[in-house]
Amino acid sequence: MIESINEDTRKSPEEAFSNGDFYRIGRLLTSSLSLTTRLDRVIEQAMELLQADRGSIMLLDEEAQELVVKASRGLSSSREFRVSVGQGIAGWVAKHGDPLVLQDVVSDRRFTGTDDSVKSALAVPLRVEGKVIGVLNISNAVRKRRFDNQDLEHLSAFADMAAVAIENARLYEALRRDQEQVNKELRMASRIQRSIISTHVPCASVRMVSRLMPASAVGGDFFSIIPLDRDTQFCFYCSSEVQDRCQKLRTEFCPNKFGLMIGDVANKGMPAALIMSVLTTILYEVGRHHISPRAILNEANAAFRRFFNESQYGFATLFYAFYDNTDNTLTYTKAGHEPPLLLRGRSGDYEYLEGEGFPVGLMEDGAYQEKTVRLEREDRILLYTDGLTGALNSKGEILGRKRLVEVVKSHAGEDIEAFLDALADEIMLFSGDAPQPDDIAVMVMELEDLYDLTMTVGTDVLQIRYVINSVLETLQGFEGLKDPITLRLCLEELLHNAMEHGNRCDVSKKVYITVKAEPTRATIRVRDEGEGFDLKRVTDANAGEPDVLSERGRGILIVRHYADELRFNREGNEATLVFTADR
Fold it and tell me: Do 212 and 134 share a structural domain?
């Protein structure tokens, strides 16, 4: 009796369609952009409207010319069941584009199924702009009745609306997949772009920190250190003592001279990033064998015009400099680039490194002007692209050079890494949520205070004893040197870590050692050319009961036990060791 009452209270298909709100159904179908969700809702709504107990949606695989079941209810067959176009009832509908109403499905010659319990059925094409994208199948009415032509008309009207919802979801998912692929490629391009950039300074007494902040995933801003080949003709100008020391290094690059560059390709995004990679390669290869910035920019200008003369990104601004540690001179050329800011460490004065020259690629003759400035210890140079001074805030105001100088002077007393962090924070504070029109690249170079010992050695464990003996000899006047064995142990750990874990035993990479000896304090710094490590992760791993037998972090535990102070830079490729006499 209850079953009979439930059947009597159900609305007939005519009542459902006449009283049902197609607008409500449309909103339900489009409430989610997920294709799977939309297919499930389409089949559920179709079965509810026609009061059927079975149904399926088959979408067309155009390449294979097959219909594939993507959603079903009341069927034993699972999703991904396939049937060729033209085969079976659904295949016939897909091929001819006409709907079918079947009073006796099993007896129909087009029926190819194995379930003989199917009685009456409807099959209508899912069509978008006249093109069949699939088939909607409904069978076995709940009221034990046979479907008729009026049911077919109702289902066809519903199918037209459902097809649009399904196609939109398919397009959205295809677009999302394409976007994910684009994002993946952009992330890869960003990693490649950053791998091109090198900030390993081959000179032990010069520190360099940098930051790249592209306006998009990749950009046209770039900077890099250009090492000078040791076998070039310019080694002739070094003293015999310097040349002899260089010959003992297992490295192809000069430890006292190097080039540095910062530039900005016109516009931004992937095209600018591609041109940036080519230009960087040109500058790197030319710069390895020349020390004249003017000659290097002339070569780059000619190559740029040869490769990109028809490109809308036909020029790039550039600042290229050559540093010689033997006399602390910086020789530079500017090609339409923002002038770097030189901050004198001892006086606090500042000056811009101005110069004449057209952007690279703009003119056949760049008319580059070469200038030389002598640097002193504690001097700091800020190199940047115009995205820094051109940073915008929500009011449309630009940061400008005046504000930049104020920021630089207010943080001049901070460590070079803290200085760059403060500069980045000031930019973010000024800009707020305002979108930035250009990429930002920043380099900060600093000549550190005069050291009592500066050494550059190759990645060779046989040189560790030579380094330690040189350090101990330098620290003879240090009052705290009562136990040289302790100092030897700490240095040996740091040097081994730098060579084996930092440089990963790569003989082409170097280790830099500097020593500052004072009567009551000794400061030793060891820097490698590796990728560094996450100090916090290693510290957290040893936060519990330290395992001295574990190789991971063991050296840090030993050095921290004996030294008065041990600190690392942010990258984790430089360790500073401090001993005091009043220990």
Answer: no
- The vertex-192 CA angle with 188 and 196, nearest 5°, equals 170
Which residues make Cβ contacts (< 8 Å) with residue 445, sequence separation at least 6? 201, 206, 207, 208, 260, 323, 380, 381, 383
Asked if 55 contacts 139 with a C-beta cutoff of 8 angstroms, the reply is yes
Q: How many domains does the chain have?
A: 3
pLDDT digits (tens, 9 = 90+) for 387-433: 888 888 888 888 888 888 998 888 888 888 889 988 988 888 888 87
Give the residue from 134, 159, 174 where a domain finishes: 174
Give CA–CA dist 39/154, Å, rounded: 18
Q: How much is the mean pLDDT over the chain?
A: 81
Q: Are residues 125 and 33 in the same domain?
A: yes
Collapsing DSSP states into helix, strand and coil, what is residue 365? Answer: coil
List CB contacts of 425: < 8 A, sequence separation 6 or more.
none
**DSSP secondary-structure letter at 378?**
T
How many Cα atoms are found within 13 Å in the side-chain-facing hemisphere of 6?
6
> What is the DSSP annotation of 487-501?
HHHHHHHHHHIIIII
> Beta partners for 68?
59, 82
Identify whether residues 269 and 166 lie together within a single domain: no
- Block residue for tokens 């690249």: 441
Beta bridge partners of 434: none
| Mean predicted confidence (pLDDT) in 310-335 | 85
- What integer pLDDT is reported at residue 6 of this predicted model? 39
Q: Reply yes or no on whether the pLDDT at 5 is more than 60.
A: no
DSSP 476: G
Same domain assignment for residues 27 and 124: yes
Task: Please give the average per-residue pLDDT across 232-236, as a whole number.
Answer: 59
CATH number at residue 26: 3.30.450.40
pTM: 0.64
Check whether residue 442 and residue 457 sit in a common domain. Answer: no
Give mean pLDDT, residues 514-531.
85
User: Is 508 inside a domain boundary?
Assistant: yes
Strands 453-458 and 565-568: unpaired
Q: Which domain covers residue 545, as residue numbers?
A: 453-580
According to the per-residue pLDDT averaged within each range, which of 124-138, 253-267, 514-528 is highest? 124-138
The mean pLDDT value for 105-122 works out to 81
**CA-CA distance, 339 to 524, in Å (whole number)?**
34
Average pLDDT over residues 116-141: 88
Residues 205, 348 share a domain = yes
Last residue of a domain, one of 447, 474, 499: 447
